[in-house]
Amino acid sequence: MNVVQFVRRNSRAVYLLTALLIAAGLVSLFRLPSNIYPELTFPRIVILVHSGDLSPENMLLTVTRPIEEAGRTVLGARRVRSRTIRGAAEISVLFNPDVDMQYALQLMDAKISEVRGELPAATDISVERITPTAWPILMLLLNGNVPGSDLRDYAFYNLRPLFSRVPGVSQVEVQASDTREVSVIVDPTKLLAHRLSLLDVADRLRATNAVTSVGRLDKDYSRYLVLSTGQFASLDDIRNTVVAVEDQSPLWLRDIAEVRDGIEDPRTLVYGNGQPGALISIARQIGGNILDVADQIEDIRNHLGSAIPPTLRLTVVYDLAGFVREAIASVRDAILIGGLLAVLILFLFLREGRTTIIAAITLPITVVSTFFFMSVFHGTLNLMSLGGLAIAIGLVIDDAVVVIENIYRHLGLGEPAAVAAERGTQELLGPVIGSTATTVVVFSPLTLLSGVVGEFFTALCLTLVVAVLLSLLFALTLIPLLSERFLSHELHRTASSRFIEPVYRAYERMVRWSLRCRWLVAGLTAISLAGAYLLYTRLETGFLPDMDEGGFVLDNWTPPGTSLAETDHVDHLLEELVRETPETGSFLRRTGGEMGPFVTEQNTGEIVVKLKPRSQRKRGLEEIMDDLREQIQKSVPGVRVEFVRLLQDMIGDMEGSPEPVEVKIFGSDTQVLTNLAGEIGPKIQQIPGITDFRSIQKGNPEIVIHVDPVEAGRLGLTVDQVSQQVSAGLLGIQATELRQADRTVGIRARFPDSFRYNYDDVRQFPIVTPAKQIVPVSALTRVDQVRGQNELLRENQRLMVDLTARLEGRDLGSAIRDVKQVLDGVKFPVGTTYEIGGLYESQQSSFRDLLSVLALGLAAVFIVLVIQFRAFAPALIIMSAAPLSLLGVFAMLMLTGTALNVSSFMGIILMVGLVVKNGIILFEYVHKLWEEQGLPLGEALVEAGKIRVRPILMTTLCTLFGLLPLALGLGSGAELQKPLALAVIGGLTISTFITLLVMPVLYSLLERGEQPPRNGLPTDRTT
Questions:
Q1: Alpha carbons within 13 A on the beta-carbon side of 165
Q2: Residues paired with 1017 in a beta bridge
Q3: Could you read off the pLDDT of 251-263 as tens digits, one per residue?
Q4: Residue 271 forms beta bridges with which residues?
Q5: What does the DSSP 8-state code read for residue 998?
Q6: DSSP letter for each residue of 481-510
Q7: pLDDT in tens, 661-692
Q8: What is the DSSP letter of 312?
Q9: Which parts of 287-382 fold into alpha helices (H)?
Q10: Which of 616, 612, 596 is nearest to 604 (CA)?
Q11: In 3D, which of 332, 316, 134, 540 has the Cα closest to residue 973?
Q12: Which residues does 241 contact at the CB level (< 8 Å), separation at least 6?
């Protein structure tokens, strides 16, 4: 089939199709949603449970275990992990990657409903499917010189509705230190004088503040709804509530209690930039455009008008959209710079403007057209999809370069433009299609990947494959048409020949020397393989590359059982150190809370730090965190801190393995596990590079009130009734709500703080019996102080102790090797086992998957080569370039200090598709000279190399310089593709020499002693 003749006859259709693709791509570009990562789907469901203030041991037995057992029976569940703390539990269920998570969520809801009746009455359960939308994209802080409860009300009732109505917003959460309530502070002496309990007061408030529909009444041709109400409208209404009647005289609430505006007992403290504030966290919907949402939020923020008083300030403390903008701009610049460098390389070789422009025009056309197909396949503009385009820049121009160079060569032979376009394209039809096919098929097994790696690189490969296929289409259609129209023999520049002639002569000398010294070259090749293996054993390994995201999270823990007030004091010291860091832009502090769907203890703190832009700071993110960690160790002893990167920690949390180093010890005896942790922990801490180590935390202080059921029974009480009265006295009891126009305010009956927070008074706590007798709680109970468990961990219904750590200046692979040496030296008792989890587990799983992909990709490429050459020998020779090029890959990673991670591994897979392209272009011409023209094999190898050395060098240099901006890692988010680009550059550089010098030697050795077939008939073959 003569492609050029077909294109020539349908030239108008080609131009029209090209124009339509460009127009569709431009429209799609402005409609595609933007995100930092592809739409990740994680096979994980988290069940958050709150059940008052039960101890961890009781929570585990009465709440956690029944939910674990229910979750384990859901179809597709493969791992159940739980964390139980005081009054709360977090149960994480991980599913097989092929499970329909929406259906799994429905099944999980049904299972939880089945066991809900077995749980304590006050248990609150929420079931959430883990997606990136569970984490905020924007965090705004409302500050001002007003009471904290007013800040919360302004944020919740005034600002939250404004932000919630923005298209693409899924959830707006408000957190503040103070939440308004009506405090009914009951005087215990007066209460007991009337022989009442707090439960009696709460019941009377609840019964009074009721609105009941009691019937219907027809009157004056209308039907009236009849309501009975005693609803509170003001604090005076509450004060005038009758709580008892004694001798036909009412006892008013005001007689025994003070009613006033108050605040709930704080569980979480929120500060921003050193001042109390209200935090507004905004999450997007699945598929929502981060940039559109952020722009609309910013517009609302700038035009609040009278929504809040002018004395209040609303500032941004976390902005993922800003990082997305910077990252997309960085990749965009990489695409532009890479494309410009590729065009300059093209001009350097051809030395002719029109020819360069014709080849270069395929770059913007291909890139813009790719956006249309991204829209068709429901893609997004993110680091991975745009990274695929940036990587494709050098590849996109390859086919155009090869075709235009051959057309240009034919013009130099004196052929007319039409003939040169036809012959130049037709000669390379097979090699160009075959070389593009190898790039496509090497990525086809990636569809088998699952998890983060699969989601990430599927998006990258989609854009890369689409771009490469489009470049092939334009190279075989548009390039011949434009060449025929705008080029001629007269435009051929001899300067290009003078430039390339020294290259031809030097190459001919080298390849002839290689063919004369075949066994020496083969020996050096074997040595290079050994060198590649040696470098591989010395490489650092990791999971995902670290990125400077312009911010970090400082998590901190005070000793178990530390009060909220003391934790707040320690967090204030940490806050001051963050404030004094010169690179700090703004920061947010939460004490007793953290980002994400987790249960949190009161001794936990979190500081979210937003740094100044890169242009305004001299230090990188890692240096800032290391310096701050050192200051904390010196200035704030006794606090445990952990520095985490925002996005990478989010991915780790979504997978359920946030820590790089995690040792899980399993057993049935808590004390045995504790002893093992005490033995192993100090040894792991001594490993170089281990930091932010976390071990088992024990020592939660508890006051245990042992109720004597016999004594309680004599007074007509049950154990539960005694517990209810003690709980009401300590925590108060929310009786009902004060209903206002657009909000409700809780009404809580409680004792004064001076009474309920006094340990001696608690021991003499008054208990009211059904006979209206009053006895101290000490008469019915025994009160002990003990040190209980801080948290209890289980995985797959086995007790577990978790030892975790992060790394500083150390790669993951070597650190885990040292951890394994520590574990090998420990004698584990019978019934105990250990596993290594965390990011290392994810890394090993990803590497296994990528190795499978690489093997399948090599097999697919080999099939294409056999089809291309209809023989095994050239296919084997061309495939040999892949393992031989590993020396360049590992050397480049070693020289640049880059770890072998999933990104650089992906570069190896991409390199396989690239290195065989040059081999196809070379050996296709070798076979033409050897089989069709009858040249001896040695001469055919030399002549084919001389003809193909220019397009091979051009395509290689275009690819290398196209990847150079990514390899430099400039700009936000560029670190993600940097290892990939470095791996490709290192492998492709050395593979060029392998293709031009080593492959001819290997082919001559494999085919020695044979002659080519003539006219399709086999003959004696000699070289």
A1: 5
A2: 1014
A3: 898 999 999 998 8
A4: 276, 589
A5: I
A6: HHHHHH--GGG--HHHHHHHHHHHHHHHHH
A7: 888 888 888 888 888 888 898 889 888 888 87
A8: -
A9: 290-302, 320-350, 353-360, 362-376
A10: 596
A11: 332
A12: 204, 205, 208, 232, 252, 253
